[in-house]
Design a protein that fits this description.
The structure is a homodimer.
Chain A: H1 8-17, E1 23-27, E2 33-37, H2 38-54, E3 62-66, H3 71-82, E4 86-89, H4 96-106, E5 110-114, H5 118-122, E6 132-136, E7 147-148, H6 149-154, E8 171-177, E9 185-190, H7 191-202, E10 214-217, H8 224-227, H9 229-236, E11 239-242, H10 249-258, E12 263-266, H11 268-280, E13 292-295, H12 302-312, E14 315-321, E15 328-331, H13 343-351, E16 355-356, E17 361-366, E18 369-370, E19 379-384, E20 408-416, E21 422-427, E22 432-434, E23 437-439, H14 441-449, E24 454-464, E25 468-477, H15 485-492, E26 504-507, H16 521-527
Parallel strand pairs in A: 1-11, 3-4, 3-5, 4-8, 5-6, 6-7, 10-11, 10-12, 12-13, 13-14, 25-26
Antiparallel strand pairs in A: 1-2, 8-9, 14-15, 15-16, 17-18, 17-19, 19-20, 20-21, 22-23, 24-25
Amino acid sequence: MMDFPLTLDVILRRAVATHGQREVVTKRDDGTWHRYTYADMERRARQLAVALQKLGIEPGDRVATICWNHYAHLEAYFAIPCSGAVLHTINPRLHEDDLVYVMNEAEDRIVIVDQTMYAVLEKVLDRVSLEHIIVFSAEGNVPEGTLDYDTLVEGTDAQDYEFPEMEERQAAAMCYTSGTTGRPKGVLYSHRSIVLHTFGSSLSSAMSVQESDSILPVVPMFHVNAWGLPYTCAMLGAKLVFPGRHLDSESLLDAFEREKVTVSAGVPTIWIPLLDKLNECPDQYDLSALHTLIVGGSAAPKRLMTELEDRHNIRLLHAWGMTETTPLGTVATLRPCHAKLSEDQQHAVRLRQGHAVPFVEIRARGDEGIVPWNGKTMGELEVRGPWIAGSYYKRPDAAEQFTDDGWFRTGDIVTIDASGSMKIEDRSKDLIKSGGEWISSIDLENTLMSHPAVAEAAVIAIPHVKWTERPLAVVVTREGNHVSEAELKEYLLPLVAKWWIPDAFEFVEAIPKTATGKFKKLALREQFAGKS
Amino acid sequence: MMDFPLTLDVILRRAVATHGQREVVTKRDDGTWHRYTYADMERRARQLAVALQKLGIEPGDRVATICWNHYAHLEAYFAIPCSGAVLHTINPRLHEDDLVYVMNEAEDRIVIVDQTMYAVLEKVLDRVSLEHIIVFSAEGNVPEGTLDYDTLVEGTDAQDYEFPEMEERQAAAMCYTSGTTGRPKGVLYSHRSIVLHTFGSSLSSAMSVQESDSILPVVPMFHVNAWGLPYTCAMLGAKLVFPGRHLDSESLLDAFEREKVTVSAGVPTIWIPLLDKLNECPDQYDLSALHTLIVGGSAAPKRLMTELEDRHNIRLLHAWGMTETTPLGTVATLRPCHAKLSEDQQHAVRLRQGHAVPFVEIRARGDEGIVPWNGKTMGELEVRGPWIAGSYYKRPDAAEQFTDDGWFRTGDIVTIDASGSMKIEDRSKDLIKSGGEWISSIDLENTLMSHPAVAEAAVIAIPHVKWTERPLAVVVTREGNHVSEAELKEYLLPLVAKWWIPDAFEFVEAIPKTATGKFKKLALREQFAGKS
């Protein structure tokens, strides 16, 4: 067989040759829309590649982006890796110190930054060593000492430029985990791993991406390559719709209607207010094209699934992954073995994290070794596969996250059922160990959040003399609603084991969140440390 | 990223872990049905692997099969490559001399043969050096000096056997092209190429295989791995239905109904009589589950597509590939750019060979270099990609089939349109060069075969003093029908360019065919050599 490398330039060539007239559409900051085709995108990606080379970028160098989801970011997604450099997508919500840390560890030489996020960068400029700052701006009046993205790209002749030949195992992109503890850890994605992830995630049994789709990734492009969707859409010619920084429910619903979006992808905290908005005014938007919302990042509450489907005819597809898994690891589609289950049981199946995508292998390890796939025994999830991280960038100290036989330890406590469907019961560090048994904080949170008066609920472990640990619930009530501790305890009684019911409830205005929107349980544990 | 090899044992592990209870169903020679699951299959594949090792098979050794499509052949499909050996699937329709040639060139040490095909092997036994012959037999009374497949497998303990670690670029399988001229040429498939082909061909935009499918490959497992379907179905957990040697229309229709087949795949010569049978008795079979017949191997006549769809609500999906392309290269799905075409134009699009599957790249070369994608300019199709052959087994003399820059020259004369859709106009050697212009023999054949009285038509070039070459049509009429040369000429007049109309027509009882069912034009050219 030919020695044909799995590199991203093949996807880019295909996007032009086969899908050149398919559209890439972006909502600009000012609310107007930018439209062009994959053929236009490829031309500008080549121009950007040449421009970066003229600025001194060589194969292997890191070029960072601090950008929302838009067409220029897509150009960078191809230009940087296809010219042999490494795309480092930076989460602008990182703490300043972490931002400095990741830019210095990655040794970013150039950064492409949205003008609207320039302030984030500006604060740390004296602590990082950047050679050039390229600003993507609608108005064109970029800060002094920086380069204007559009002027740079359009002013570069790349007519005869061809991307170099590359090895499939060379680095294409990198992304840092925004861990709740410790310094961020970098994951390097190879061309090969992204290409294989693109194949795996496109399958009918995974995200089932088709050319006829119009896909709006709400999940940021600085968060695990927007779950790979920019590459997946380009390979299959699906229309890409970028929301820019307009991520509120009304803007999204408007974009869904306007661009006949068929599939969108985001975290539960995006979809929950969007569902509420839809419930308020179910006939305001024509969403007849929209068939699937993919949800990941954290577990979706049941109400999100049932109401989206029953009231709005939109399927919620639950998927799981991590920065370390490129990210798609499992997906919870309904399978032939579930055909005879009741509707309620089918919902339960689809609210699990699901079965592994082909070539991702999963197992769970308990105190006594690998646990059986019985849907009951909990263990820490371990994964392996061609798009799973084998180490962290410059972090040999993090070797304990990999088993001796080469599996990645996810830190998630899961059960796996006989059909291979995985359910995250908790993060290992969030699990509550009470009287020798395990209580899943996530299960408690989701059950609490199914109460109509509860907007958000986080459950943490509090030290206990007799039981080792006991759960404490931190609750945010819905605006204009009130609920008491006693009412919540009564609500939980028929829904969870009696000994799971939290001993204490704290009502707060807001729960602190990480840069990726997850509950910052470490902060909560500190805040409520005295409650034991 | 992890160094995780793309090897077939991963597919086998997945078939058990995730799809262990999905069925593999086979129609036995005697018409009864054998049913078991992927979990059963995997157990027996491990037993077969151990049995072969005990017989002396080592990594890299070739083990041949001469078998129809059935569960034991599937076991061999996994047992042989997953234990590091090479599966050599032999076409029993090969000429005796070719059979001897391929077995000796491949140095097959063991062969697994269906009892019903033992006669094929017996004829050449004194000309090949086999160490063992394993016979798969329904009755169990195998010829003297051979081993009974079932006894061997079931008598082997493989409880603790694990498949060895392998390199993804090592050979997994091999298949010989049954060329119309010259000696057969062997193509070696690596684990990597088969795995990547499995991903590519499963995509929604390709064959769109899903776990809920029930798939019956009519295409033989000795013909380019049954288009990869055994591996594709195992990876995605689709139910596999094997027809054994029952390939007549009634048996197939009966199997479709009985096993709720959703997708089947075969050559036009299988589907044409099946359509006729359906037209005869449209209500005899409940085919409500069947949604797609995949057709490849040669171009499908239009009637096959329109009548299957209009009269029986079954989609015909046209695909193209070769032994050298593992085989899926292109597939003719209807795409967004075709949405506004008329129904007739859409049929024309879907009767082309279609657009390349992701990571397969195509181009066409004419006398003056690479031709434009305008749907008009003909050129020889060249392809490359990770599942395209880079050379032939032990045949450095066949280097002219590869370009200097590493593309495979298919020998097909094609046009490619602006959307990337390829149409085979002819085989380069079958093209008729008349007065400095090219006439497509395939176009003429398909147009002739659309005449209701014509069962088969082959068009060949006959030397001509003035025009260099002129077409001659060899026609088989449908049973009970008659049609004259004058009538056929008149029929063609509005359908093709006037100068394309064959000068001469020959009516024959049957057209000689190759081992894969293609017209043997070389034989026709010899037969009608005097007609110039």
